[in-house]
């Protein structure tokens, strides 16, 4: 894999991890907004719930000054362009991390569009301060925009359906769920013929035809394994034999938990470097599925989660902020830990190409917890190789508008149990 595009930042680990700065005390984050009941759901009183464990609840500490960090080698130009695209969301959305308010971003967002592109590093140094959430130690994987063989209509060689969100996929509380347990969003599922709310069809049921004949197909893929990995990535392109391109993006999920099949192979002793083992990368997993088609089909079905798509237009796949995500500039992050739209500085990684400035513009089902990120690498063969094998550990700093940390330091501390991880 290519490496060394960003110089390794020797000596930065100490200020990131060990700086004895004043720790911002945990404070109460925003309460979750109750979900609107789905049609047919049993009404329930709004329960009193504890606030979610977010970045403020875990603890936030000031990081080093940006003027002392080598921003010029951190791809600041790409990060500035991504930040500008994120501003329209930053200025209106509620920050689940508890770190910022929409008004905090206005000065930087006002300055960004006219800032000289040749001084992108100066923009970040002028408008932002750094913060370390929890211990600041990061784990970063990768994703990309797959390009797989596919067509708009079924035809010989293209028989694997790509589905849109089914209309019977809804959120509701099962009748038997006690009122006191109805906390947060109701689960996803469907109402069966008897009016009972039941889990939605899982991957095996859908692949066996549970949605066939309902007119939900937006395309047809040639290879079920390639479509499986496109679902894991969350967006991609269907490329027809005549070169026609259909860009599809994440639209919904069936409500079943995600199971990483790489971990399953590892538990079975099939991942490694020994005889009969496969590399612990997307390419290695795909090789196993190709060489063991029956076992591979059963393996993929262990991941009961199933992703539905929508056709998208524009010059890039769209992330959780509803803005295009950019290769080597966009990160998926946990919105409880990072304000979506915020710049993130990754450093001292054991994969040097991950070091640099990124912008948190997306989310992911497996991207949960402090300093857990998924890096987007774009489309094409190089992006596929890098993203498929990306697993980097290093340090992370969240860039917040100047003055944010001073405001947070004045917030009241919460009870000790709210500091749990």
Automatic annotation (TrEMBL):
One of its GO terms (biological process) is cell wall organization. Its EC number is 4.2.2.n1. Pfam families: 3D, MltA. GO terms for cellular component: outer membrane. Residues 147-310 form the Lytic transglycosylase MltA domain. Residues 31-50 are annotated as: Disordered. It catalyses: Exolytic cleavage of the (1->4)-beta-glycosidic linkage between N-acetylmuramic acid (MurNAc) and N-acetylglucosamine (GlcNAc) residues in peptidoglycan, from either the reducing or the non-reducing ends of the peptidoglycan chains, with concomitant formation of a 1,6-anhydrobond in the MurNAc residue. Keywords: Cell wall biogenesis/degradation, Lyase, Signal. One of its GO terms (molecular function) is hydrolase activity, hydrolyzing O-glycosyl compounds. This is peptidoglycan lytic exotransglycosylase. The lineage of its organism: Bacteria, Pseudomonadati, Pseudomonadota, Alphaproteobacteria, Sphingomonadales.
């Amino acid at each position: 894999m290519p490496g060394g595009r960003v110089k390794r930042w020797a000596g930065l680990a100490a200020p990131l991890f060990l700086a004895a700065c004043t720790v911002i005390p945990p404070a109460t984050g925003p309460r979750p907004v109750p979900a609107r009941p789905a049609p047919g759901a049993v009404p329930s009183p709004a329960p009193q719930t504890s606030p979610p464990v977010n970045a403020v609840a875990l603890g936030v500490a000031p990081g080093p000054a940006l003027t002392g960090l080598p921003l010029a080698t951190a791809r600041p130009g790409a990060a500035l362009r991504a930040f500008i695209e994120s501003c329209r969301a930053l200025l209106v959305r509620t920050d689940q991390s508890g770190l910022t308010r929409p008004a905090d971003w206005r000065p930087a967002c006002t300055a960004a569009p006219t800032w000289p592109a040749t001084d992108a590093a100066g923009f970040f140094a002028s408008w932002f301060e750094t913060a370390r959430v929890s211990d600041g130690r990061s784990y970063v994987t990768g994703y990309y925009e797959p390009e797989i063989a596919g067509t708009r209509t079924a035809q010989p060689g293209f028989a694997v359906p790509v589905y849109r969100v089914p209309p019977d996929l809804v959120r509701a509380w099962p009748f038997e769920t006690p009122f006191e347990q109805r906390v947060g969003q109701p689960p996803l599922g469907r109402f069966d013929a008897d009016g009972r709310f039941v889990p939605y069809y899982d991957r095996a049921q859908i692949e066996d035809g549970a949605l066939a004949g309902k007119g939900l197909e937006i395309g047809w893929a040639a290879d079920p394994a390639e479509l499986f990995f496109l679902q894991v990535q969350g967006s991609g392109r269907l490329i027809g034999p005549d070169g026609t391109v259909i860009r599809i993006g994440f639209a919904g999920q069936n409500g079943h938990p995600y199971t990483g099949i790489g971990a399953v192979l590892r538990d079975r002793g099939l991942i490694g470097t020994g005889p009969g083992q496969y590399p612990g990368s997307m390419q290695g997993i795909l090789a196993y599925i190709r060489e063991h088609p029956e076992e591979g089909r059963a393996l993929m079905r262990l991941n009961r989660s199933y992703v539905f798509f929508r056709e998208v237009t524009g010059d890039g796949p769209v992330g959780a902020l509803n803005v295009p995500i950019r290769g080597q500039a966009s990160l998926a992050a946990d919105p409880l830990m990072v304000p979506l739209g915020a710049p993130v500085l990754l450093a001292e990684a054991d994969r040097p190409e991950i070091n640099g400035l990124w912008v948190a513009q997306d989310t992911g089902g497996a991207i949960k917890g402090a300093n857990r990120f998924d890096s987007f690498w774009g489309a094409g063969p190089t992006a596929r190789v890098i993203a498929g094998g990306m697993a980097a550990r290093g340090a992370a700093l969240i860039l917040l508008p100047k003055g944010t940390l001073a405001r947070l330091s004045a917030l009241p501390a919460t009870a000790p149990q709210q500091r749990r991880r």
